[in-house]
Amino acid sequence: MVEPAESPSLVRRLADRLGLTVERRLAGGEWGAYLVTGADGDRLVLKIMPRHGTGIFERVQLAVRLTDRLRRNGYPIPRLRDHGRWQDEVYTVQEFVDGEVCPRLTAAHVRQVYELWRRHRGAAAPHGADWPAEFAAQRATGRRLCDRLAGTRQESLARRITAILDTAETANLRTSDLEHHDFHYRNLMVDGSRLVAVFDWEGARPGDSRRDLLRMASTAIGIGRLEPEARDLLRDLVQQEVPADVRTALGASLALGDLGFGTYAGAEPPEWILRSCAYLLDDLVP
């Protein structure tokens, strides 16, 4: 039996192997992030990657190389101390940044996020995304999701998303932007109105950074953790930066992931997932 990656005993064994002392689990993180102390007394963050498919270590290695460019140019990304493989796990160790995980987006936060987001464009070159292959895979995922949700309240939404993906145009999608791939307001570290770090870059890849902007807007709007001025500013920025055909394709791509995640355990998805999908597909805002 494979031990879950979030198992405290597994985390402690890995920490012991790396010469780290586990202090506590941190909020957030799909399979957990842990505050640890190094032998020199430095506070660090140990993360174990979710086992999503094959090639996880290679994807993390590419993300490390791509994000290191941004960090060296002043982008506020926590410095990576170590990454590697241990047994069946892929892990990262990065510096701990003082601050607070963003509890609620303000207009000041959005303006800072936007200025950072603009630096994602072209930042993955010479690497490039293969959009035809990615959308072919997403169409197959959509059909499986339709089968899984057959007879449920969400079947019609799954079929609608898949139908959009079936006809989505990818010719105008950019290929060499650096896409964070989970550009979520809960992956922002703030000190009051000041943005001090963007974290959780292990899934970064070449792609179209406009999907990141849509992700920031859809999660904040779906969950409702933003001020009205921030909501309006995010919507305006999306309308300004994301043409209709690009929004249709990338919005359906994100909605597919949201609905799949929200129904993975077979339960009804959280309301925020449905609100996020409504924003991504129809620009509906509660």
TrEMBL record:
Residues 32-236 form the Aminoglycoside phosphotransferase domain. Keywords: Kinase, Transferase. GO terms for molecular function: kinase activity. Pfam families: APH. It comes from the Bacteria. Gene3D superfamilies: 3.90.1200.10. This is Aminoglycoside phosphotransferase (APT) family kinase protein.
